[in-house]
Design goal:
Blueprint lengths: L6 E8 L5 E8 L3 E2 L5 E8 L6 E5 L2 H21 L3 E3 L8 H5 L5
Length: 103
């Protein structure tokens, strides 16, 4: 059975030493937990072997927090000297994703 998917992002990180790492970030549809918080499951392969549950006050909030988690990771990789690329080798537009993003 194929698991439902809410969002998927594919990015290649070219590390300072030239090593290429294909990142596959996925967010599963949120569901309401027993504690009335909503949970969005997020996983970034190969950096995480298991998904992480992100809790929000509603489904929108849980997805927003999952997106923030992915963007923070990409920002950290870039700050450490990695070049982020799309599948075609062009630069990944991280700044466009971060536009309007406030912590």
């Amino acid at each position: 059975m194929v698991k439902a998917l809410t969002a998927k992002l594919l990015v290649t990180a070219v590390l300072a030493d030239g090593k290429r790492v294909d990142l596959d970030a996925r967010i599963r549809p949120p569901y309401e937990g027993d504690d009335r918080y909503w949970i969005a499951r997020v996983q970034i392969k190969p950096l995480q072997s298991e998904p992480v549950d992100v809790r929000g006050v509603d489904s929108f909030h849980s997805i927003w927090l999952a997106c923030q988690l992915i963007l923070k990771l990409l920002t950290q990789l870039k700050a450490e000297g990695a070049r982020l690329e799309n599948a075609d080798g062009s630069e990944f537009p991280l700044d466009a994703y971060l536009a309007g993003f406030h912590e």
